[in-house]
Hints:
Oligomer: single chain
Number of strands: 2
Number of helices: 5
Structural class: mainly alpha
Radius of gyration: 24 Å
Amino acid sequence: MRAILKRLSLLAASLLIMVVPVMAEELYMNAQPDVQQFQQNGKDECLITALNCGNRAMSIQNRIDAIQNEINKGAAVYTNEELGVLQRRLEDANRELSDAQVGGA
């Protein structure tokens, strides 16, 4: 009886050792943001309100390009207030890029 319990416990431990990496990868893949998730009704909520960004990271130049693309969508997608927010974020990003090129403020 002890031998059977010992083997069952070893089997359970080995199964857990094999399952943990699979579960960790599954959790990691579910945590990865989907680009479609950021865009609702054609709007990029991450650029406007910094919400729904997930693990999204952008270089300064990529952020400038993304903001410019959103501004180009215009009033068909965004309200005037949202366009103003995007314009201010574009100015901030351009200033940040300029500061980085010059060597800081």
